[in-house]
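Follow-up to my post from last week.
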Amino acid sequence: MGCALKANMLQEWRKHFILEEGMLEVDCTSLTPEPVLKASGHVERFADWMVKDLKTGDCFRADHLIKNSIEKLLADKKTTADLKNELQDVLARLEGFDDKDMQAVISKYKFKSPITGNDLSEPVAFNLMFPTQIGPTGDFKAYLRPETAQGIFVNFKRLLEFNQSKLPFAAAQIGQGFRNEISPRQGLIRVREFTMCEIEHFVDPTDKSHPKFKKVADHVLTLFSACNQMDGNPAKEWKIGDAVTQGVVNNETLGYYMARCHQYLLKVGVDPRRLRFRQHLANEMAHYAQDCWDAEILTSYGWIECVGNADRACYDLRQHYKATNVKLVAEKVLPAAKNIDVVEAAPVMNILGKEFRQSAKKIQTVLSQLTPEQLAEVELELATNKLYNLKIDSETYPLTDKMLAVKKYSKTVYVEEIEPSVIEPSYGIGRVMYAVLEHAFRQREGDEQRCFLVLPPLVAPIKCSVLPISNNVVFEPIIELVREELARYDLSHKVDDSGNAIGRRYARTDEIGIPFGITIDFESEQKPHTVTLRHAESMQQIRLEISEVGRLLSDLSTGRQQWSDAQAKYPKFEANSDE
Amino acid sequence: MGCALKANMLQEWRKHFILEEGMLEVDCTSLTPEPVLKASGHVERFADWMVKDLKTGDCFRADHLIKNSIEKLLADKKTTADLKNELQDVLARLEGFDDKDMQAVISKYKFKSPITGNDLSEPVAFNLMFPTQIGPTGDFKAYLRPETAQGIFVNFKRLLEFNQSKLPFAAAQIGQGFRNEISPRQGLIRVREFTMCEIEHFVDPTDKSHPKFKKVADHVLTLFSACNQMDGNPAKEWKIGDAVTQGVVNNETLGYYMARCHQYLLKVGVDPRRLRFRQHLANEMAHYAQDCWDAEILTSYGWIECVGNADRACYDLRQHYKATNVKLVAEKVLPAAKNIDVVEAAPVMNILGKEFRQSAKKIQTVLSQLTPEQLAEVELELATNKLYNLKIDSETYPLTDKMLAVKKYSKTVYVEEIEPSVIEPSYGIGRVMYAVLEHAFRQREGDEQRCFLVLPPLVAPIKCSVLPISNNVVFEPIIELVREELARYDLSHKVDDSGNAIGRRYARTDEIGIPFGITIDFESEQKPHTVTLRHAESMQQIRLEISEVGRLLSDLSTGRQQWSDAQAKYPKFEANSDE
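User reply:
Got it. Predicted complex:
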């Protein structure tokens, strides 16, 4: 059932985003060569701080250990009010702590291993990527991707071409992400392998307007802005149009995706009263990010981050450019031709090649990336000393004026290069699915034991049950007619002709979230054959011809019609079988 | 476009197999703990033979190297007819070669590295699984799964429960498989990461009949039996019912899946004239397998294995039982109660525990798995020597008659345990997709330059194009009406209002396999608004109201109606715009 629910949620995601917005879709590999993840910064920085039990070697995520240890102290009656205030303050700042901050807290409060009570190591960085090797030689290092986004960035040039070299455009990817969590927990919430849906929307950094923004401008979202969080104010309802106009949300494109995110989450069954968009605080956000809003959903585990909507500026593309010296830029036609002054390093490659062999290429790359200020310095050095010492990492390359000059000239340009900004909505589908299941959970009034799920028909694994009122053989040909009708409309269904009481069978189908039920009774034998259709949530029933059932259910399952439309059209059927 | 095609193929697979057959679906992780793959035999045996260039270390798959080297010799005019015959014979037997056979061939014909001409190493086994570690300690070994099947086997007990403990039932999984191929090649045909769809159908080994077999019995397949292959006869058309009756195909369940496989492949666009089912030869098949038929599709790379349909007997479940001592069996109610004689080893666990500590559990496991013959030997040893030396791997455990007895008694049983047989259809979706694209390729008669794809509407990424006859603004509101109509039926579509000549735009949409095109012309302005609908394959057009387009296209895209039905219902529209 879970697989079918997930498949339906993914299919709707594809329709809602990729098809409706005309996005490009890619399907990259999970195995990712190391250079890609070095460029993106993941090899160096995609890590959690971990502490170890000094005797047993048990590992704990440092921030989780501190949080749990503090919560234990706060719950302890012996803890003084002063200490509680102090600990509350640590908790509030924990998100921004580095290893030294955490070590200081662990030392100060003498936190130990929660399992053995043993002393703990200092926090060490633990990279969350799963390493492996590709190919038979063993010397081609790779990782399982921690996110799908990098596959889009490294394909940027081809994607831009597919879009006739025009900005803005968006590319999307649905696939597995892998993170070697130190302590996986909470069911589908923190797992080591999970399905992500990511969009990278590339846009001119000087114009982040969105052509379809006016369509969603009046859409109301619950926003929990950084200001509200700092001032201790609650989240507030905003029209997304007003939020962008008043600068609460950075720009139209980001706002557009937040509104579309809200629509998607509601479509698949998230309760809007348990959904908010929380802005990242300044210290939470990466230094390059412009703005970031997480869609958080309230579950029994608290508010869970399920979707990130971030404006990452030009960070990602620039990282890959730095690593490969392949420009990842778009061109914008200037309103008028323009004369510009060019200053650039002009290395003499054949001399450089003889002198520095394999390093020549690297020297050329670094020279081509020098800023105007650095070039002025190079020019001065070459003029005064006939030599410029170029430093790359820990190496120094002495470049003489035979090898290098600084050229200045002016040229007429008709286009300008722009480094696109990236707006990145990133969905953790497993987390959304978990929230949908919690929000769908119901108990029948007056009977707590009768639990059921109200899943939106759009994502329900099975759209309809088929229940003959008894297991009398006369129903068999009618069951077959109903099955054929449902199959014609690709409606997933489940026949239960077990002979159990009909009320018990209804309860069973309600439990697994089947939104509609077809009942075949003795009246069904008369021609034209009719059946009753039951709406699980309200337990109301209507009666209609078998030949009408497929179209109606197809419409109900895709939202083209609502149950109230069906009730208005077909006669009500009264039965006390649900009692 | 490829992502959408693949998503549609997977969605159809889910409908055709999982929904229509009422299968259980699971979604297991790609990361698989080592013990699972040790039990399945993959850690020990999932390897290819590899030879290395002795100087450069370049690696080659031994069988590929031999095949390519022989083909080069065969193409060489200087090769004598005798040698050619000899080499042809080697090629024919190559599939069954082990490392020694291959080494003999490489030595005899002095095959060298195809890149450098250097000598080659002897063949060494190279395991095709990608290794990694799970968790922070680094001592929990894991692999990326080489197939999805193992996830189903290790969940067998729960799946059986979900099926009310009844046989037969089938479980399916769609997901990534990973194989560290020595030399990936041929586009989507041999890749290191690929999407698989696998079914494990569990069935009573003494009754492999299938309740729905009669529905497919008259279905005609092209079968290339082992006999035909050995005798040099061509493949032959068979009704699958006859093939099972005459023992060509081992049993009904296997035959049923072959017929359903055939139906699926045709639905997604495989040309039936380029599809055959080839039976594995005795030396190709694993020793435990009962029968195996690969669906092979003819492409420009030759006949490519795209689907395996294998009867694997009880091998897989038994392997996991051996490794874990958890019985993976089903129960069958006996026609009548039965008295049986039981002989079993009765270890005295508290003595064993004191004597052998951690090994006691392992000893118990091995004792419980002894055969009646082995138990007779144990009984004899205990009676004569008061001691039985139990060997496990390289260890010997001396068990005294204080620790162990052999018990005999009789009991009445009402059910019997059965070890289910497994019928396994396994689809490589990337390979099928590649074949579909090749088979969909067409050129317009009389104009080789005008290439197009005839994809079945069911799987076509975009169902319909929307083309105003010119970029006149009067068409804009009508385009919007058409878009709304198409969106209501979830029909993927692409608007091209670029103002290029209509014929050129048709050609463009034909190239990417859009099966239908809506054209908006000046007649469309009159109310009720009408448009023309063009069938890309035949280039014929009909005219209909916009309000009818959604339903019709939805029916055409799911196969509820054919183009000929639409032609019969709506007036033909004549235009020479395709010229």
